[in-house]
Request: fold
Amino acid sequence: MSNSISSDPTLQALQEDVNALKRDIGSLLAHLKSSATAGAQSAADQIEDSATRLYRTASTEGSKSAKALGQQIEEQPVLALLVVLGIGYIGGRLLTR
Reply:
């Protein structure tokens, strides 16, 4: 029986087609894997760039705000002291409850 299967040209052609299909699917999966890896790396790079820009912006804005606050305190030290004392008093009252 196995002799008749191996000698049948139709079955041999079918077997060759199945083997070719297996190779094609394997190469397709390898290509998809490499494309997915490249896409993920590209997305990671974009996220890293965005995070770096966001950090730089936040750092710059924080520095500007700190300088403005320092200047405001130097210009009006009594008002700044009263504001800090008021915040401390309110905070103390809230924490004792």
Notes: The chain is about 95% helix and 0% strand.
